[in-house]
Amino acid sequence: MQIIQAGMEHCDNLLELNKTLHLDIPKFKWDTGEYITEEISKGGCYIAKDTIRGKDKFLGSISMKSYGNKGCIDKLIVDKNYQGKGVGKSLVNFAIDWSKARGKNELLIESFCQYNVAGFYKNCGFEQDKGLIYYQGTPFYCFSMKI
After folding, report:
1. Which domain, by its residues, includes 26?
2. pLDDT digits (tens, 9 = 90+) for 22-36
């Protein structure tokens, strides 16, 4: 598996992958072409891919941002057919390395409760912040990790 920086030529594949994130809440943006194009143009979107039966297969993707001394995973998604096979953990490790390379000492991620991934992030070494935050009335968790 390789993790590479996404280019505009990857938009359609990323859009297909991101559609699996969709939640029926107002102003949900993470599965739109505009969001994907913006993330790619900012240089913070990466793809986990592998060659399977002679074809490139997108296994997952991650979007990274910086806030002061913190790295932030804006979006992490793994194709449902590859969940539980180490792709998500590899993307988190990539995020740790990405953040350290930029002098960050903490890594953050937020996730809607409906995704049921709190256990995954805790297993990766994140600590869950107390309480919930709400986006358009939909609860989400906040996780952080010292790196």
Report:
1. 2-146
2. 889 888 888 888 989
CA dist., res. 109 & res. 33, Å (int): 22
Residue with tokens 């913070």: 44
Look up the CATH number of the domain holding residue 22: 3.40.630.30
The letter for the amino acid at 143 is F
Domain count, the chain: 1
Please choose, from the candidates 107, 15, 112, 13, the residue with its C-alpha nearest in 3D space to the C-alpha of residue 55. 13
Over the stretch 94-130, which tens digit does the pLDDT of each residue have? 999 999 999 999 999 999 999 999 999 999 999 999 8
Per DSSP, the residues of the chain read: -EEEE--GGGHHHHHHHHGGG--SSTT--TTSHHHHHHHHHHT-EEEEEEEETTEEEEEEEEEEEEETTEEEEEEEEE-GGGTTTTHHHHHHHHHHHHHHHTT--EEEEEEEGGG--HHHHHHTT-EEPSS-EEETTEEEEEEEEE-
**What is this structure's pTM?**
0.92
